[in-house]
Amino acid sequence: MKSTVTFHGGVGTVTGANFLLDTGSQKILVDCGILQQENACSEENFAPFSYDASAIDALLVTHAHADHIGRIPKLVHDGYKGPLYSTPATKDLAALMFDDALRVMKERDEKQGCGMLYEKEDAERALAAWQVHDYRAPFSLGDMSVEFTDAGHILGAAIVRVSRAGKSIVFSGDVGNSPEPLLNDTEMPRNSDYMVVESVYGDRVHEGKEGRKEMLRAAVEETRKNKGTLLIPSFSIERTQILLFELNEMVESGSMAPIPVFLDSPLAIRVTDVFRRYKELLSPTLRARFEGGDDPFSFPGLKVTPNIGQSRDIHKESDPKIIIAGAGMSGGGRIREHEREYLPMKNATLLFVGYQAPGSLGRRIQDGEKHVVIDGEHIRIKASVSALSGYSGHADRDQLLSFVESAGEKLKKVFVTMGEPKSSLFLAQRIKDFLGVEAIVPEKGDSLEIEL
Ligand SMILES: [Zn+2]
User: Which pLDDT band, with edges at 50, 70 and 90, does 38 fall under?
Assistant: First the structure.
């Protein structure tokens, strides 16, 4: 049997995952992500899909990051009427993400007039048609079988396998940086014929994770000594929960004195509750904590501030204190209010714990700009700026190579996607050189035939 895979997005760049598997009997889409997450206003996101949305039969969703789900409601708006499939946790997180994206879009539309990518009803219709399947619980889609396994990337993230008559293709989604404290390790995609693999860090090796908790501790103690405020712009899914867990470990073990920590992100607060609902997906360490009656995301000193009034009141709280708020690259969200307040202060620290995309406010500050404009206000930065490494949620080049290698001897062809061109080409070359397997870096719109 023959199928074709068409790369409608997620090639030549890390964002916008959107792959179409045409099996002859069905058109199955995998992911439908947003491009340039820091600027949802960008024209690329508003452009029509390069296929007829109403002709698609099914949509498989790997995980709830915006670059994998962000245009799903637009797909529904543009005529998609079929079912969606993911793990239960991904559906719950996607519902929160759509809600948050609608709020952010409304704000941007009011300020910049860039219009709405979709309306609330589109997101609601997507969620109404959304079916869920657990990891390792295969289900049928016409003459195809589909199975989700644990990607170890964020809560609920899946590697998607589509099979027919003993042949299979695996879509990696994003591959986790295992081992991680919160999640189980990435499941290896054994016995696969074809693979669509991500390559965000296809050409780089991560620094060790060993030092990151100590670096976090040092930043907290420096803040305590300076009687200042430590600002941490953080991504709502996974990164925030890792920070809470690591602070929890230090405070509850008695190795760090309690300090006021404000979790000032309505989205991150709700996402943390989703983690609490899916204890069975968490790592053995975390499950044991919950079973022992301890909440690993809560500790003395932590205050959650879901309401905007509570958020504003944080500025009246005495120092030292820590504020964790989104968005992770300071492109929007409450962190901007705090940056306006604290960046001009000498005894404050801005601590990055994640990748800052070129052009984002976070990146400009990280690169050393001393004057920035935040929501019309000129800010002179006197605060210290630093970054913690070791928090990446993605596999690095060596982990990706092991992931591909685990597919085994049947592996015929690998499509290297979701990376900057340099990164994808580097990984493809290593797959050819080290594994002797054909590896292709597709371009946008390429359609390639496979035996499936
Ligand atoms: Zn992701």
Answer: low
